[in-house]
Amino acid sequence: MSRRQLLSFLIAVILAFFAFIPDANALGGPQPPLNQPAPDFTLPTNTGEGNISLSDYRGKWVVLYFYPKDFTPGCTLEARRFQQDLPKYMAKNTQILGVSADDVDSHAEFCDSEGLKFPLLADTTGDVSKAYGSWMGYVSLRHTYLIDPDGILKEIYLGVNPAIHSAEVLARLEELQAIS
What we know:
The chain is an alpha+beta fold. The chain is built from 6 helices and 11 strands. Residues 32-178 form the Thioredoxin domain.
């Protein structure tokens, strides 16, 4: 067996192994179940409103996105795309909430730097990220959860591409709103 064949075989075995991992488990841990109430939480925010709870947004759709770190390239791109599309989300009665392990001061600087007009929440202990299966050691993973106005989890996005993610979420939001 040549080196190339061996490498191809190993890659195939690894991919086959990952294909048998249940969808309910992602890299950050077990995912909350779809079509069930999303895990509620209360976290401090950079907006000057003190704390924000998921339950504060009953009656609205919520895009709850977790990201690793303020001021990093992928996280900045993802936040910019959500900000760019913010009027479209608002027209669809949808609130965007970003969550990372950064503190409130870092979030405030990040929002000022990027002109973000939606809240970023400080999950400094990782407890909320863990509840959503989005915690890896000391940072949140790039996962997004779409929650309906009744607080029911309707969509989970793992392995997000920051450049196109907001457009994907908007398209799915439109589909889900057409059904309900």
